[in-house]
Specification:
- The structure holds 2 protein chains of 2 kinds.
- By secondary structure, chain A is an alpha/beta fold.
- Helices cover about 30% and strands about 20% of the residues of chain A.
- In chain A, strands 1, 2, 13, 14, 15, 16 and 19 form a 7-stranded mixed sheet that branches. A 4-stranded parallel sheet of chain A has the order 10-9-11-12, sandwiched between helices.
- The mean pLDDT of chain A is about 95.
- Chain B is built from 23 helices and 8 strands.
- Chain B has a 4-stranded parallel sheet, sandwiched between helices. In chain B, strands 6-5-7-8 form a 4-stranded parallel sheet.
- In chain B, helix 22 (about 375-385) links the parallel strand 7 (about 370) and strand 8.
- In chain B, helix 11 (about 150-155) packs parallel to helix 13.
- Classes of the chains: A alpha/beta, B alpha/beta.
- Chains A and B meet through helix 6, helix 9 and strand 13 of A and helix 2, helix 5, helix 16 and helix 18 of B.
Chain lengths: ~425, ~400
């Protein structure tokens, strides 16, 4: 069986590329070693949060940012295409009610209460925008270890928001029964929030403890498939604006994104094989003809006309460094860019410093095809997207999901263009 | 192999992705999740058993291993821990019984009418629950009046250029011989001479019930039967997807069997749909399918998904005119072989399967399709919709009558 496209990786970049291609009627296969970053990253799409200081409008900041960072993945994606990817995403995940866009960032509190600029946010998080100021109350749930409302509130209260709007914040804790369990994960709580009785208990305990006008922040655990209904019900019954704050992993908001995208893939006839990593490939000259995955008993070849590599960076195994400091791209052993010199510094001592090793990845051409040092594509039909790309520092730029979405979308566009 | 599996836990970064996918920890607080009982609890197991019995509530479905982005063999670690637990505590009689399908089959098929009446008699099932701990509502199959092997002995497979060996496993032999006949007819239709060697249980139910020594003996015996064909270069094909996985990988990765016969059989083993799709990729599958105007929701069982071969049944269905196959979202039916039969686990198993049952019913289908026998019985039990092996649809579309 020959596919039109094989996508390697099931994170946001891979799923985006796959869905966009499947929607165009292409036969698409996604193969992935495991489930990707959706389950770890918050559900917001951060396009560009920080350049020289906080970014208020990614649309305005991007041209200058790209000029200053010629190796950055955004260099290969025109602003118009980034905008199109956001619109496409918001429309495809209509059930999650994404809002916002490239024109202005909103400021949402992170799990530790930092006001983080982000471009596209799900409806259930939108009321957390700190820009207009307000009185916030953060709701902890006893037994949920991955959320610290006191710490969060203290940090939020110190937020500096543009225009000097006043932000105040406090924390409170609820103790709804957890069915005999001492502690629960975010996913466990999300399942409980889908039960009417549990919501009743939460609402009844909470409603007397709110002051008029307060904006209520819950950890992002307000259900999975029924999150919109859960959130709506809480707003209606509490008569306060309600929003979700990202938690430590697992990210319930991200799981909603994963489930929506994979369900859309199934509806569009794409195939998803999780649990199989790519261990080899076949090519003729500069044309990649197939990738080999390991099944339970033997290698399996999948042939296709085009390929998308979206296997992630170091955290996902798309890139690997051995104990001698040698870095390789694991699927095709592609040439890497941004490598620190052999005797150069790979790491800086400060965790949040600009880490030299972090810029390592694939350099690509305008069709997002990995290229060698001379700028020639490794294969004429292999495109790359997401965290495998060189030149970004997503945790400093607040750009991770934005890069994945935009490059996944752009890789699909390049394939559609090349094969049409 | 022990080292490879156990050392994989060093790759665990505690991302908890496995926990979000585990269908069983979602359904019961008695199972705290694959990461807790696996990579975390494993640290307390050096030379001793598990800190508590929670690992017994793992069904062994393997979803955790599949979704792990770091390649940790979570389900395998947990299966071994479960066996360690039962080795210390002694395996209950019930688990010893229900883990021996070929023994039950040899007892049941000669007296099939009586056995089937007994298994469907409410007071007796109640007694069975009290005495044995098999839940009175658990979906038990019906014994066939004649085993598949009896049919196979009289069947003369036409000579052909290519030979394939058929591993039908216990479910086909004692409960669903018709599926075996359809498999043989579909393979013969595609130009194969089908060899059906005598065969016993692969040991999988014993493995999942923690009796590793007995499971190893079974799988070695079976592999010894099949290995000569594999050495002759024959493919071995099975319609029992979980037993196929046992021979492909689990005997080596979970039971730690290092055996030349097991190794060659592993390399020759194909899931039936995997095999047929590969034929199609080589342009060798007959596609003289008649239209089947049916709506069929398809559930790929957990064990089938662990083969790492995708969902070949869907690609085969796509070759049948007018067949509308619906790929279901739910991951697991909950039964996990013998797990859902147990008195203390039946309710959990039904809770796990609820989403799948709903999806099957919502499709308003003519029938449902699924590669695993125990999952089919569970789907029928939970949704009241008939569930068939994919080969049954191929068989129909080829225009064969009732087998």
């Amino acid at each position: 069986m020959t596919y039109d496209v094989v996508v390697i990786g099931a994170g946001l970049a891979g799923l985006t590329a796959a869905l966009r291609l499947a929607e165009e009627g292409l036969r698409v296969l996604v193969v992935a070693k495991g489930v990707g970053g959706t389950h770890l990253a918050p559900a917001t799409i951060d396009v560009l949060g920080y350049a020289d200081g906080r970014v208020e409008s990614p649309a305005r900041a991007l041209p200058e940012f790209v000029a200053a960072h010629p190796e950055h993945p955004y260099r290969r994606v025109p602003v118009g295409l980034i905008r199109a990817s956001l619109e496409w995403f918001a429309e495809r995940l209509g059930g999650l009610g994404y809002r916002g866009g490239l024109e202005e960032n909103v400021l949402l509190p992170t799990a530790v209460g930092v006001a983080k600029p982000t471009a596209l946010v799900p409806r259930t998080m939108a009321a957390g925008d700190l820009r207009a100021g307000g009185r916030f109350v953060f709701v902890g749930l006893r037994g949920f270890k991955d959320f610290y409302p006191g710490y969060l509130a203290e940090n939020v209260a110190r937020s500096e928001v543009p225009g000097g709007a006043s932000v105040s914040a406090r924390a409170l804790e609820l103790g709804p029964p957890l069915g005999g369990e001492v502690d629960v994960s975010s996913a466990g709580l999300a399942r409980r929030f889908e039960q009417a009785e549990f919501r009743d208990l939460v609402v009844r305990e909470l409603e007397q403890r709110l002051a008029p006008g307060e904006i209520v922040g819950f950890p992002a655990v307000l259900g999975f498939r029924h999150a919109q209904e859960v959130w709506q019900e809480l707003e209606t019954r509490l008569r306060h604006p309600v929003f979700e704050v990202p938690t430590l992993p697992p990210s319930v908001g991200g799981i909603r994104v994963f489930e929506s995208l994979t369900a859309a893939l199934r509806r569009n006839g794409a195939r998803v094989v999780v649990g199989s990593s790519v261990s080899g490939s076949e090519h003729r000259g500069k044309t990649l003809e197939g990738v080999v995955t390991q099944t339970a008993a033997r290698p399996r070849m999948y042939r296709a006309r085009s390929f998308v590599l979206a296997s992630g960076g170091f955290a996902s195994g798309g890139l690997q460094m051995d104990s001698y400091g040698r870095v390789r791209e694991t699927a095709f052993d592609l040439p890497l860019a941004g490598l620190p010199a052999p005797d150069g510094q790979r790491f800086e001592p400060g965790y949040f410093d600009e880490q030299p090793i972090a810029g390592v990845g694939l350099a690509v051409d305008d069709a997002l095809r990995p290229v060698d040092a001379a700028g020639a594509p490794a294969f004429e039909n292999l495109h790359a997207a997401g965290a495998t790309l060189a030149g970004a520092t997503p945790w400093r730029e607040a750009s991770g999901n934005g890069i994945s979405l935009a490059t996944g979308y752009a890789a699909a566009s390049a394939i559609l263009e090349r094969t049409s | 192999m022990t080292e490879l599996v156990r050392d994989s836990l060093d790759h665990c970064v505690k991302c908890t992705i496995c926990e979000t996918f585990c269908p069983f920890s979602q359904a019961t607080p008695l199972f705290p999740g694959p990461k807790y009982v696996g990579p975390q609890a494993e640290r307390y197991r050096a030379g001793t058993s598990s800190p508590d019995v929670s690992v017994d509530y793992c069904s062994g479905c393997g979803i955790c291993t599949r979704v792990c982005p770091q390649g940790v063999k979570i389900a395998e670690i947990n299966s071994r821990a479960r066996a360690g637990l039962w080795e210390e505590r002694g395996i209950p009689l019930r688990n010893q019984l229900i883990a021996r399908p070929s023994v039950l089959g040899r007892l049941g098929t000669p007296v099939a009418p009586l056995a089937n009446w007994t298994l469907r008699n409410r007071p007796l099932r109640w007694v069975g629950e009290r005495l044995l701990g098999v839940h009175r509502h658990a979906p038990l199959p019906r014994f066939a009046r004649r085993t598949f092997q009896r049919w196979a002995k009289r069947h003369v497979s036409p000579a052909a250029e290519r030979t394939v060996v058929y591993f039908h496993a216990c479910g086909t032999n004692y409960y669903e011989p018709a599926v075996g006949r359809m498999t043989v007819e579909v393979l013969e239709h595609n130009g194969f001479h089908v060899v059906i060697p005598p065969q016993d249980c692969c040991g999988l139910p014993l493995q999942s019930n923690g009796n590793f020594p007995a499971a190893r003996a079974y799988v070695r015996r079976l592999a010894a039967r099949l290995a000569p064909y594999a050495r002759d270069g024959c493919a071995i094909v099975t319609n029992s997807t979980s037993c196929g996985l046992m021979l492909k990988r689990e005997a080596q990765e979970i039971l730690d069997v290092e055996d030349e016969d097991v190794r060659v059989v592993s390399e020759a083993m194909f899931d039936l749909c995997e095999f047929l799709l590969l034929l199609h990729e080589h342009g060798e599958l007959r596609t003289d399918f008649r239209p089947l105007p049916l709506t069929v929701p398809y559930h790929a069982p957990c064990q089938q998904q662990s083969h790492g071969i995708g969902k070949p049944a869907l690609d085969l269905f796509a070759l049948i005119p007018q067949l509308e196959a619906i790929e279901l979202d739910a991951d697991c039916c909950g039964v996990a072989g013998t797990y859902g039969l147990k008195k203390e686990k039946y309710e959990i198993s039904m809770a796990v399967g609820e989403r799948l049952f709903d999806e099957v019913r919502e499709a308003e289908p003519d029938l449902a399709a699924c590669d695993s026998e125990t999952c089919r019985w569970q789907i029928e039990h939970g949704s009241s919709i008939q569930a068939v092996h994919p080969v049954e649809l191929l068989h129909r579309a080829y225009g064969f009558g009732e087998p």
